[in-house]
Design brief:
Strand content of chain A: under 5%
Structural class of chain A: mainly alpha
Largest sheet of chain A: 2 strands, antiparallel
Shape of chain A: globular
Strand order of the largest sheet of chain B: 6-7-8-3-9-10
CATH topology of the largest domain in chain A: ABC transporter involved in vitamin B12 uptake, BtuC
Helix content of chain B: 40-55%
Oligomer: heterodimer
Shape of chain B: globular
Largest interface: A-B, 37 and 54 residues
Number of helices of chain B: 13
CATH architecture of the largest domain in chain B: 3-Layer(aba) Sandwich
Distance between the termini of chain A: 64 Å
CATH class of the largest domain in chain A: Mainly Alpha
Chain lengths: ~500, ~300
């Protein structure tokens, strides 16, 4: 930003022909500086590479990659500088050409192609935005307001988007599109959506930063696995039991912890999450330790029929019961519908509870818990309720996870899971139901979709997080609608004797 | 407001020998006074006199080191406030308060603020959320009544047109009024206001005084009158609307009586203006006193 003196490229300048000249020297200097910073960063990160030689580990230099990235950074920065000085249109054309070249022509490495396409695309997008709005730079407040209006629109549209999305999710397995992989990804996405919605109750509504949500997921999963292992109970008996046990563990944790606030609270929940995992690893005789528990029974069709080709004694086979050809997909489809139903239960609960005194008290606690005490709200009970209910939903999701995998081990319940679920809630916009869905698609769906890019998908994931932090620190769709309206909503009949 | 008849009744709130220590610091030292239903009792005193501490004791945010706080409901029930946990004082004893630095639920709408204030009533009606989740009619009726009460107080504090606004977006004066409305929605027997006129312009203080006298004078649906306990620095407001003034200085009560009595009490003048009584009044204090006399 070495060109503070340039005039803003307002549309009027173009009309009057008084377009300010481009300060080439400063722009190139700026781009050169950016390239220099890139040089410092890329030499150790990109320029050197360890290779496995017969004599041991060696280091190999990769000058071409460094030069390529330097040129890209230089050109990108130059493009941004020119956009800011009213040269948006030429930059747009060049950037598009660049992306096109990257797409079509053969490249020495796959990475270069990716960078060319993505870099060209981003710059082109930026230039197109500038051309469209006629303004070179939106202020942060403007952008915020714009995004908020957009979020409000999405919020209002979610009345229609919601049912459409649910209908789509419901018919997906029936379409020919649904192969094993699509269904598996669907189940994975729905599991995280359910966990996100569950955590949203604690973090989004009650405003308690819970870093150990995965503990309840683990309690649910192990409850089912152990009950099935030791007592031979079926999934349909264990599902509610797992929920109850997870809720109990939520109360157990919440009771001593809820007197803490803010960061201290978050740290203790983080500890709790780790404690559960470490107990699972070390209580070898009971939980199987790091080996986990295998052979967890698969769910039956509501206890009526089994999904295997040759079911055990006294159990009907699903395909025979419905006169279908046997297919291993039946079970997957059933699991898909099961998690869809569970997730929708969580969603319905949240939507309803927001309009009840319980949900309103949670939101009030998030806003100001001292004021809540002054209004006679029992803070401990309210927070415990939030904790227990969210834990219960986590427990449901956990026992679903156990029955889907057929095998669980403490590996599945590490801190990174908690972090991902929390990232989903925060990215989506705290308290926003549809935000959780969008964020899950981004956080879980995109890395799944770009599995071929291997290591670079984590890079893209990190870059996405940074972009959202910069553009939308309150989350993608952070917008709250009042749960009750006096004006604007349906007119209510006015009773004769108003409170005196 | 005939003081003679009121005095035969038992007081709404009795504070007896209240002492509050923080380590070596004595914030309140053996303070005793009474507040009555249907009266505005003002607590005044220089900065650091222990007014807010006393307030926090009454509303359950602190537990006093020594002393007894008795609240008597018009129906005859008695509550020993120093023995109750904070939220119970608001829930059972019916003591509502506002804060020196406004504490609204900023992200929620104005109406929602007033509905949250009726939490306990609605929670019972919604069967602790179970009946509410099932959508039983009992809760809908209770919620409707809650909205009516909220509307009534919105009307009183003239915020009806802002009902669907985010509370945090209201102008400052409106936020002060909303906080009072929210406290009144808990249907209290004693309303405690911590510097409600702070930061208000003269016109807004005038409106505030009107709201407070209304709260004092109106008969509640339960057939009693609300007592108001008020901390205030704005002497023109205090002298105009209070029925009873208690003056604190260095944690002790130094004067107690009608505004007229307190104003002429040499101990009060000494506390506010310093030891030397021959000293001329600073011009702004003189102006304040004149204004207060005109208002009284």
């Amino acid at each position: 930003m070495t060109t503070p003196s340039h005039a803003p490229s307002h549309p009027h300048y173009h009309i009057n022909g008084k377009r300010p000249g481009v300060d080439w020297a400063a722009t190139i200097k700026d781009a050169g500086l950016a390239a220099f910073v890139a040089l410092l960063l890329t030499v150790p990160l990109v320029g050197l590479r360890t290779v496995d030689r017969p004599t041991g580990l060696g280091i190999e230099a990769r000058p071409e990659e460094v030069i390529a990235s330097l040129v890209l950074v230089f050109l990108g920065r130059l493009g941004l500088g020119l956009i800011r000085q009213g040269m948006a249109l030429p930059v747009l054309i060049l950037a598009l050409a660049c992306a096109g070249v990257g797409l079509v022509l053969p490249m020495p490495t796959q990475v270069l192609r990716l960078v060319l396409v993505l870099g060209g695309g981003v710059i082109a997008l930026r230039a197109a935005m500038t051309v469209a709005t006629g303004r070179s730079k939106l202020s942060q407040a403007d952008r915020d307001k714009r995004m908020d209006r957009f979020a409000a629109k999405v919020q209002h549209a979610s009345r229609y988007i919601g049912p459409v999305a649910v209908a789509f999710a419901a018919v997906l397995p029936l379409t020919p599109l649904a192969d094993r992989m699509i269904l598996d990804i669907g189940i994975l996405l729905l599991t995280y959506i359910m966990l996100g919605w569950g955590l949203n109750i604690v973090v989004g509504l009650a405003g308690l930063l819970d870093l150990g949500y995965v503990a309840f997921y683990a309690v649910g999963a192990y409850s089912y696995a152990l009950l099935a292992h030791y007592f031979g109970l079926s999934f349909w008996v264990c599902l509610p039991l797992a929920g109850v046990l997870a809720a109990c563990s939520g109360v157990l944790l919440g009771f001593p912890v809820l007197r803490l606030r803010g960061d201290y609270f978050a740290i203790v929940t983080l500890g709790f999450g780790e404690i559960i995992r470490i107990i699972l690893v070390n209580w070898y005789q009971f939980t199987g330790g790091p080996n986990g528990i295998s052979g967890i029974p698969r769910p039956s069709f509501f206890g009526i029929a089994d999904f295997s080709r040759t079911p055990a004694e006294g159990m009907a086979a699903f395909h025979e019961l419905f006169g279908l050809e046997f297919s291993p997909l039946h079970r997957i489809v059933f699991l898909y519908y099961l998690i869809l139903a569970l997730a929708l239960v969580v969603n319905l609960f949240t939507l309803r509870v927001r309009k009840l005194p319980l949900g309103r008290a949670w939101e009030a606690l998030r806003e100001d818990d001292i004021a809540c005490a002054s209004l006679g709200i029992n803070r401990t009970n309210m927070k415990l309720a939030a904790f227990a209910i969210a834990a219960m939903f986590g427990g449901f999701a956990g026992s679903f996870f156990a029955t889907r995998q057929g095998f669980i081990s403490p590996e599945s319940f590490t801190f990174i899971e908690s972090a991902i679920i929390l990232a989903i809630v925060v990215l989506g916009g705290m308290g926003s139901q549809i935000g959780v869905v969008v964020a899950t698609l981004l956080v879980i769906g995109l890395p799944e979709a770009f599995r071929e890019l291997a290591d670079y998908r984590m890079l893209a994931f990190g870059a996405g997080m940074v972009v959202i932090m910069l553009w939308r620190p309150r989350g993608l769709l952070a917008h709250r609608d009042p749960t009750i309206l006096l004006h604007g909503g349906k007119k209510k009949p006015v009773p004769a004797g108003a409170a005196k | 407001m005939s003081a003679a008849t009121m005095n035969t009744e038992k007081p709404l709130l009795s504070v007896e020998h209240l002492t509050m220590r923080f380590g070596g610091l004595v914030a309140n030292n053996d303070v005793s006074f009474e507040a009555r239903a249907g009266e505005i009792t003002a607590l005044i005193g220089p900065n650091g006199a222990g007014k807010t501490t006393l307030f926090n004791c009454v509303t359950g945010f602190y537990t006093p080191t020594v002393g007894r706080l008795t609240l008597r409901h018009p129906q005859g029930k008695e509550f020993l406030l120093e023995r109750m946990p904070g939220y119970r004082i608001a829930q059972l004893a019916g003591v509502a308060r506002t804060f020196q630095n406004i504490r609204l639920f900023g992200g929620m709408s104005v109406l929602e603020n007033l509905i949250v204030a009726q939490h306990n009533k609605l929670m019972r009606a919604s069967g602790f959320a179970i009946a509410g989740l099932l959508g039983l009619p009992g809760f809908r009726k209770a919620e409707h009544e809650a909205v009516e009460l909220a509307k009534y107080w919105l009307d009183r504090v003239r915020l009806t047109e802002f009902a669907d606004w985010e509370a945090g977006n209201l102008p400052y004066g409106a936020q002060r009024r909303l906080e009072i409305a929210r406290a009144m929605c808990t249907e209290p027997v004693l309303l405690c206001l911590d510097e409600p006129a702070a930061g208000l312009n003269p016109r807004e203080s005038g409106e505030l005084a009107e709201i407070l006298t209304f709260i004092r004078d109106v008969q509640t649906p339960q057939g009693h009158r609300t007592g108001v306990l008020l901390i205030e620095h704005d002497m023109s407001v205090v002298m105009r609307i209070s029925d009873h003034v208690v003056v604190l200085d260095y944690g002790r009560k130094i004067s107690d009586g009608t505004p007229g009595h307190v104003k002429n009490d040499p101990a009060v003048i000494r506390a506010y203006l310093g030891e030397d009584e021959d000293e001329a009044l600073p011009p702004e204090v003189a102006a304040d006193l004149n204004l207060a006399q005109k208002g009284a």
